[in-house]
Automatic annotation (TrEMBL):
Protein name: Uncharacterized protein
Amino acid composition bias (Basic and acidic residues), ranges on this chain: 1-24
Lineage summary: Bacteria, Pseudomonadati, Pseudomonadota, Alphaproteobacteria, Hyphomicrobiales
Superkingdom to which the source organism belongs: Bacteria
Region named Disordered: 1-25, 69-93
Amino acid sequence: MIRRTGDWERRQRESRRQRSEAWRSVRARPAGLEPDRRRAIRALWRVCPYPAGPSYLGTLLHEIATGRIDPERPPWAGRHTLTPRTTPNPGSFREAFRQIGKCLIGA
């Protein structure tokens, strides 16, 4: 068990090191671009539907470089709107703090 614990810790450390190395390498790619282009890519990355991972950022940068995605007009613009699971204008305290998705007793 002690050996397994040590192996697990080493694997976790190596996994974190590899992931941080991947982030550093992919984040260095836009460094050679002009500032306006970098800003557009950063803004696009904030709203894109991809999961926040280095491989997905690399894919996004590749698609921009090959012309498949235009940072000024992304294919997902306007399709993904945030819909928070809240009561927008509650009329009462009870309505404001109700548990969403839970059945009400006697309802």
